[in-house]
Design goal:
- The protein has helices at 34-38, 40-48, 75-82, 94-103, 119-123, 126-133, 169-182, 202-208, 222-228, 243-255, 297-307, 329-343, 353-361, 375-382, 388-394, and strands at residues 13-17, 52-56, 86-89, 109-112, 138-141, 165-167, 189-193, 214-217, 232-233, 259-261, 265-269, 278-282, 285-286, 291-295, 312-316, 347-350, 370-371.
- The protein is an alpha/beta fold.
- The protein folds into two domains: 4-172, Phosphoglycerate kinase, N-terminal domain (Rossmann fold), CATH 3.40.50; 185-382, 3-Layer(aba) Sandwich (Rossmann fold), CATH 3.40.50.
- It is built from 15 helices and 17 strands.
- Bound molecules: adenosine monophosphate (AMP).
- Adenosine monophosphate is lined by residues 195-197, 200, 219-220, 237, 292-293, 317-318, 320-321, 323, 352, 354.
- Adenosine monophosphate binds at residues 195-197, 200, 219-220, 237, 292-293, 317-318, 320-321, 323, 352, 354.
Length: 395
């Protein structure tokens, strides 16, 4: 796996795919700088060696040139985070971009305009990728969030750099962390899958059954399993057409010696709102008119015991409707359990959009071993797929 360490960037231009797809408010200010910060290590490494950085990214889903999606809005944030001047050019290909790249000096950063102003980017257009490739001596991919897309800047461009291509520090760390969980993990290994639906995680579950010793199934998707086993789930969310699949998963897990843990009790609500009436009930006996919205106290205790006997922990998906304060306690309790296990030496990886939002919101981001920056990309890796953006560098 080629990384920055394999190159000398002195007097070289690095063309770097970063993921600066950050949220902006109505005044076009960046409201979450995590992704920009995540790319800092790579950029500074290259600058300190006397190289220069040409940064390319997408922002949102523009339909052609739309000012609201301009990367000019983020220049100030990038400047503040990198601690040096950041040049910006209002196109990502063409004569203006070419001139700006030519003028770039060692130790300097140039940010190109939004790649997705051109539909060629998402189409993976070869000629567009070739134009981008002219802007660097070495191609660095540091955008995990788009590594599962075969876009021009994430994948196709790599073919124009036979040897001179590598992973940036962030992408390398993402790959290593997931590999640590899936392939080189210390046992016992635990996967915690929560969230709304069985259907969106089914391939992940099937792939990881070969890798884990324990599986916690929580959140909304646990009700499909409970109903399939004959439990009464009231108005809880359930995918009726996935009940057979749920039983099949339990069978496969048993055959592979994987211990499956499902909540035994729930916080049930009489309405899907933060100020609904609630009661604690057995997950098998939720009254009609009530729905399970969070893991109950016994389940939290059970999960705490499982988490604390494991040495490798993967967490994807919340245990309840954590966006509502009244239903967040189960997810917060799990965060505390993982924090404790991590302090005792376990490796813990959190990934997937909603669990990342949850660990950030509840202050666990610095307490787990690694928080992944890519939602879809991480799920695809957990499904056992080869991501095109990663493959293109390895080829
Ligand atoms: P996912 O994107 O599949 O990881 O699902 C995350 C979403 O699942 C979050 O928005 C949670 O609010 C939701 N969720 C978790 N538990 C439940 C539940 N018991 N009932 C309804 N939604 C849930």
């Amino acid at each position: 796996m080629k990384t920055l360490k394999d190159f000398n960037f002195e007097n070289k231009k690095a063309i770097i795919r970063v993921d600066f797809n950050v949220p902006l408010n109505d005044a076009f200010e960046v409201t979450d700088i995590t992704r920009i910060q995540a790319a800092k290590a790579t950029i500074i490494d290259i600058l300190e060696q006397g190289g220069s950085c040409v940064l390319m990214s997408h922002l949102g889903r523009p339909d052609g040139f739309q000012e609201a999606f301009s990367l000019k809005h983020i220049v100030k944030s990038v400047t503040d985070i990198m601690g040096c001047k950041v040049h910006f050019v209002e196109d990502c290909i063409g004569s203006k971009a070419t001139a700006a790249v030519a003028a770039l000096q060692p130790g300097e950063i140039l940010l190109l305009e939004n790649l997705r102003y051109y539909k060629e980017e998402t189409k993976g257009d070869v000629a567009f990728a070739e134009q981008l490739s002219k802007f660097g001596d070495i191609y660095v991919n540091d955008a995990f969030g788009t590594a599962h897309r075969a876009h021009a800047s994430t994948t196709i461009i790599a073919q124009f750099f036979e040897e001179n291509k590598c992973f940036g520090n962030l992408l390398a760390r993402e790959i290593e962390s997931i590999d640590k969980v899936l392939n080189t993990s210390e046992k016992p290994v635990l996967a915690i899958l929560g969230g709304a639906k069985v259907s969106s995680k089914i391939t992940v579950i099937e792939n990881i059954l070969d890798k884990v010793d324990h599986l916690i199934i929580g959140g909304g998707m646990s009700f499909t399993f409970i109903k399939a086993q004959g439990g009464k789930i009231g108005n809880s969310i359930c995918e009726d057409d996935k009940q057979e699949l749920a039983l099949e998963i339990l069978k496969q897990a048993a055959a592979k010696g994987v211990q499956v843990h499902i909540p035994v009790d729930v916080v049930a609500a009489d309405d899907f709102s933060n100020d609904a009436n609630t009661q604690i009930c057995d997950i098998n006996a939720i009254p009609d008119g009530w729905e399970g919205v969070d893991a109950g106290p016994k389940s939290r205790e059970n999960f705490d015991a499982v988490v604390n006997q494991c040495k490798t922990i993967l967490w994807n998906g919340p245990l309840g409707v954590f966006e509502m304060e009244s239903f967040a306690a189960g997810t917060i309790a799990l965060g505390h359990s993982i924090d404790k296990a991590t302090k005792n030496g376990a490796f813990s990886l959190v990934g997937g959009g909603d669990s990342v939002a949850a660990v950030k919101q509840f202050g666990f981001a610095n307490k787990v071993s690694y928080v992944s920056t890519g939602g879809g990309a991480m799920l695809e890796m957990l499904e056992g797929k080869t991501l095109p953006g990663i493959d293109a560098i390895l080829k």
